[in-house]
Amino acid sequence: MTPPGRATFSIFAPLDGDEDSSSSATAVPSVPPSAHRQTPRPSTLPSTATARKENYVIEHQKACASFPYETSSLGPQDSWTPSFMSYYSMAMIAPFPSMLIYGPELVLIYNAEFGHVLGLDPGIYFGRSFSELWVGSDLNFELSEALRTCTTTGRSVTKENLLCFVTNPDTFSEGGMNKEAYLTWKLTPVTEADGTISGVFASVQDTTDAVLYERRMQVLKELYDATGSAEVLDVFYTQSVSVLRRACAEDIALFGLYVLDSGTAKTLRYRCGFGLRNFPDRISFSPEQELFEQAILDSSLSAVYITAMADGFRNYIEYDPARGWSEEIIELVFLPVMRDNNSVVGVAVIGLNPRRPFDEPYELFLELLGRQLATGIDNLRHLEEASDKLSWEVTLSTRKRQELEQLLQEKTKQLQISEGRFSRMAKILPAGLFLASPEGEVMYANDAWYKLSSYPKDGNPSFWIKAVHPGDRALVRESWRRVMLGKSERIEFRWAHRPGEVSKVERWCASAVSAEFDSETGKLSTLTGVWTDITERKQSEALQRQRADDAVERKRQQEYFIDAISHEMRNPLSAIMQSIDVASERLKSLEWMIEDSFDRGSTLFDAQAFKDGMAETTEALGMMDLCTSHLNRIITDTIDLSKMESGLFPVNPVSCQPVTVVREVLKMHEHELKNMAIDYSIEIGENFREIGINTVLMDPLRVRQVLINLILNAMKVLSSWENEKKLIIKLDASLTKPTFQSHNNASFYLQHPAVAEATERRNSSANVVYLLFSVKDTGSGMDPEQLATAFQRFTSHFAPRTHVHYGGTGLGLYVSRKLVENQGGEIMAETKKDHGSEFVFYIKAHMKEQDEDDTDLADITESVTLDEEDDEGRFSRSRIRSSESKFLTTASSSMTSMSSIRMSRSNRSSLIVQDNIINQKLLNRQFINAGFATVIANHGQEAVDIVMSGEDPDCCIMDYEMPVMDGFTAVSKIRELERQNKKKRRRRRRHGRLPIIALSANTRQVHFDRMLAAGSDRYVTKPFSFPKLVEVVNELLHASSGERTQG
Asked: According to the UniProt record, where is the region Disordered (predicted)?
C-alpha cells in the first residue's frame, strides 16, 4: 500500500501477485505530503465546472445588459440597421463561441461561450475596441490581418489553428494558468442593405485536442524511426534524447532516464536526459534516500507514476529558456518505463508543459512514450546479452528481425496495394458506392455515385434526395427509414431529370443498402450502399412489354384479317350459290314452259313470262360476275401481301405513257362509275405539260395496281354517299423530289431510311422525273384516328369494321404503300370529315427520248377525252344517272327502308335484315318465290323499329355484320322488347316468340356462342343454299306452331 500522506495516481495496473514489488514498496520511506499531489480526474470536475460556467454566463449576461449602448459608438438599439441587429442576435444566441466586430471603431461584441473559451473576465472587453484585445500578440496580428482582408475583399476568411494562451480556471488547478490553446477562426463580412461592409462576424472552434494529438503522435513516430535502426543501447539513448530535445520542446521540458541493471535489478543507472543537474548517476535501494531518489524508487517498485510539484526539486532542475514556453517547470512526473507485460525496465523523470494541464491525453502520450522506450531498451538489451553468449544468435536475431521487417513491409505494401486497388476499383466501378452514418449523413461516395445521382461534388451529399424523381422520393425515404432500423433494403427508383437535360428517357437506379452493427455495443455503426444504373434493363423490359403488346396486337389484327377475309369471301360465295339457285330455277321454269307449249302442239307461250325469266336469269349471272370480281380482288390482295412479305414482288420498268395508263385504269371502271352516278374526270398538271413528258420508263402494272386500289376505295365510299359524288384523278410531274406539307388533316408514311437508300440506288440514273398521281373523292372522309393508321397492314382507313360497311380486307392501302416505296416514292392521304379524301403518291421514273412511233402528248390527251378538254386541261364526263343496273342500286333506290313486299296468296311472312344489296335482293327474290311475304331492313336498327311498330313476321333472317346496328345488338334488343311486353301484359304476338336465324360469314365458335347467347334460335354460316335455309325456317315455324298448340 502507498504510505499514508503520499498522493499518487496511476493509469497502469501493477503486476498481480508481485510480492517483491509490494514488499519493497513498504520499505520505501515516506515522502512529505507537500512533495506530491494527486491530479484530479476529469470525471470529478463536471459538477464544479458546470456551476462555474453557469455563473460565468450569468455574469456575462449582466455585463451585456448593463452595457450603455446609447452612449457608445453603437448607439441606441432602435437605431441599429437590420443587418447589424440580425448579426448581433446571431452572435449573442449562438451555441458556439462567436463575436461581432462592428463599425469603424471595431467595437467588440461577443457571447458567453466566446468569453468562457478564451478565458476573458465576464464582459471585460464587451463594447471595447478589438485593438485592445491581446495587444502585441501574434494572435492580434493574425486576426487584424484577417479582419482587413475580410472587410476589403468582402469574402470570408478562415484562420486555422492559431495559437493563443487563455486563462480558464474551470479545467484545471485553482488560480488557473495561461493555457496553451489552438483555435480556428472563421470571419464573415457583415453587409448592409446598400452593399457596404460594416463589420465582421467571427465564429471560433477549439482545435487544441487535434493539434496536440498530431504533435505528440509525430514525436512518437520520429522516436520510433530514429531508434529503430539502433543496434546498441548507447546509440538508442543518444537518438532518443536527440528526438525528445528537438521535437518535444513544449510537452517535455525536462527528461532523465534511469534504467534498472540487467543483472541484479536492484540498481537504477542514469542513461540519458537533458534539463537535469546535480542528479545521481546511480540509485540503489536503501532505507535512507533523498526525495528525488525516493520518488524514482517508489515509481519503479509500485509501477505507478508519481506527480510532484517542482518547487521541492529546484536544485535538480536546470532552467532552459528554449523549452516549456520559456517558463519554469511547475510539475514533475516520475514515470515507470514498462514493457507490454507491465514489467518495469526503468523510470523517466519528465518536466511537464507549464502551459497545459496534465489530463488524460497527456497521460496517454507519456504512457505510450514509456512503453516505446521500454520496448526499445528491452529489445536491445536482449540483443546485447545474446551477443555476449552466442554471436550466431545475434546474427539469427538480426536476420529474424530483418525478415519480420521485410514481412511487415510486404504486408504494409500489400495493404497499400489492396487499399490502392479498392480506391481504383471504387473510382472506376460503374456502381455507386457510399458509406453513411447512423443518422443518414453520407460520409463517403465514389465518382460513380455522383455520376448516377447527378449531384454536384461541391454540394452536401446528404441532400442527395433532391436528385431523386419527385414521384419516388416517398419510396426512398421509407426505405432509408427501414435501413436505419437495421434492415437491409433493395429498391428501384427513378432519378429526376438533370437541369437542361434534353432526353426524356427516365433514368432508373437499383439501390441495395445494408446496416453494420458494432460487435461490442450492438448499436448501428455504418450504412453501406451500392447503387446500380438499371436504365438499360428498364428500357429492355419496356421494349419486351411493347413487343408483347405488339404481338397481341398483331394476333388481333390477324384475327380481324381472317374475319374480314371470311366475311368478304363467304358473302359473294353465298350470293353466287343463291344466284345459281335462281338461275337454275328460272331455266327449269323456262324449259317446262317450252315443253308444255310443245305438249300442247303449239309454239306459242307467254312471251312476257319468258322475258321476265330471262331477265331474272341474266341478273343472277350478273351478280355472279360481280361477286367473282370481288373474290378475285381479295385473292389478289392476299397474294400480293404474301409476295411482299417473301420479297418476291419485282418492279419491271418498261416504256409506257403515263396518261395512257391513267386512261386505261379509268376505262376499266367506267361502266361501274356510270351505274353509281359518279362524276369522274382526269386532270393534267402544268408541270407535266411544260416538261413535255411523253414516254417514260416505269412499271405500268404496279402503277395501275395502286390506282385501281385507290379508285375502288373511292367508289366504295361514294356508293353509299347521298351528297355530291365526284371522282378526280390528277397527273403531274416534277424534276425534283416532291415534299409533302404536313398538317393535322394529312397522314404520311415515309420509308425507313435504309429502304429509301436501297431504292434510291436501284432507281438512280439520268433523266429522272417524279410522276405524281392523285385520286380525290367527295365522300364521307375519315377521322384523325382512322387517318393515322391508314397505310398499316390489316387496318382499314374507314373504320375498325370497314368490311361491314364497304367490304375489303384492310390490305389495299398497305399493298399500295409497298408498291409505291418499291418504285422510289411515297404516299400520303389528306382528308376532312364529310368533305372527302385525297390520296397522293409519287414514283421515280426516267424520261425516254421519243421514238418516231411514239404518240405525241396532244394525241394522248385527246385519246383520254371522254367528252372534251376544258380550259384547265381537265378531261371529264358529265354526271350520268342511269337505271340500267339492276343489281348495284342502293337500298334507297330499289327497296326503300322498311318497305314491305307481300304476296296475297301466302299467310307466311319473313323479316329479312341484310345490309348487302346483292344478298338482300337474292333473299327477297327467293323468299317471294317460296311463298313468303317479306319485310326488308337494311340494318339492325331498322329491324328493331319494325318490331316496335307492330309488324308481326313469322320469322326473322338476321345478318351478323351490319352498319348502324349489328345483328348481335339487334337480337338482344328484340328479346328485351319481348320480355318487357310479357311483363307488362301487353298484346302478345300471335305467333309467340319471334324465331330468329342468324347469318354470318364468320365461322369461329366465339361468333356462334355470342349470337346464340343474344337470343338467336339458329346460326347459319355463309355460303349456304337457299333450300337449306328454308328447311331451317320450316323447322322453326313448325316448332313455334307446336308451342302455341300446347299453350
From this structure: 1-49
